[in-house]
């Protein structure tokens, strides 16, 4: 199941539609069931479906307005490719942000997140992709198997942005998107400057 790419833009730099609107490709990675599709829905519509949502073949979008620039996020979901513990190189190509997601109530998904980080390293352009470690299902604190400190430590070791979210309650989802928007903007400025 390949994603449809609406235009031919695939360069790591942001594509300027006009002087103030930038197109941002953001990809979601992580084991099945960690909440990637649910997060994608939350990012784009602030919606949560109790059942497993299917995002379909097109990416979801969300517009984030910062003081001096507007970022139009295209949020790509794996649509089940992750079952094979790998996704097509096309998925990563030109990604400005990559989210590696795990489920705080499943230790296995945290172990897998470290594999996804390794796999990601083989594809992304260092410095031009903002990589984020996302501890999802923060609402399931009674079932927690991975501590906040463990997530934080891994993120610090790898120099990643880290946030604990809940796609179910919506907790920290907007904050995460905003933090990514600021990082992507900064990374663009550094590449231009
Ligand atoms: P994906 O396979 O990574 O895309 O995961 P899904 O988005 O399909 O979610 C898998 C299951 O976890 C679904 O039943 C979701 O409703 C549920 N889920 C997703 N995010 C959360 C969350 O933050 N908290 C809780 N409690 N359940 C969640």
Radius of gyration: 16 Å
Shape summary:
globular
The helix fraction, in percent, is 25-40%
Hetero groups in this structure are: guanosine-5'-diphosphate
Q: Oligomeric form of this entry?
A: single chain
Number of discrete helical segments = 5
Mean pLDDT: 84
- The total beta strand count reads 7
Characterize the biggest β-sheet.
Answer: 7 strands, mixed
The amount of beta strand, in percent, is 15-25%
Instruction: Give the termini distance in whole angstroms.
Output: 38 Å
Structural commentary:
With 193 residues, the protein is α/β, with parallel strands linked by helices. Helix content is 31%, strand content 23%. It is built from five helices and seven strands. Strands 1, 2, 3, 4, 5, 6 and 7 form a seven-stranded mixed β-sheet that branches. Helix 3 links the parallel strand 5 and strand 6. The radius of gyration is 16 Å and the shape is globular. The N and C termini lie far apart (38 Å). The structure holds guanosine-5'-diphosphate. The site of guanosine-5'-diphosphate (GDP) has 17 residues, from helix 1.
């Amino acid at each position: 199941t390949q994603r449809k790419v609406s235009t031919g833009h695939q360069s790591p730099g942001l594509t300027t539609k006009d002087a103030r609107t930038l197109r941002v490709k953001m990809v979601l990675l992580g084991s099945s069931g960690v909440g990637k599709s649910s997060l994608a829905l939350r990012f784009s519509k602030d919606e949560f479906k109790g059942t497993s949502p299917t995002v379909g073949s097109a990416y979801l979008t969300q517009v984030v307005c910062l003081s001096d620039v507007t970022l139009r996020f295209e949020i790509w979901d794996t649509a089940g490719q992750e079952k094979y513990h790998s996704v097509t190189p096309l998925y990563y190509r030109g990604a400005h942000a990559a989210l590696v997601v795990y489920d705080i109530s499943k230790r296995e998904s945290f172990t897998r997140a470290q594999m996804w980080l390794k796999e990601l390293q083989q594809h992304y352009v260092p410095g031009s992709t903002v990589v984020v470690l996302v501890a999802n299902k923060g609402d399931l604190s009674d079932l927690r198997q991975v501590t906040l400190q463990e997530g934080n430590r891994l993120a610090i070791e790898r120099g990643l942005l880290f946030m604990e979210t809940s796609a179910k309650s919506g907790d920290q989802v907007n904050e995460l998107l905003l933090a990514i928007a600021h990082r992507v903007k900064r990374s663009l400025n550094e590449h231009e400057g």
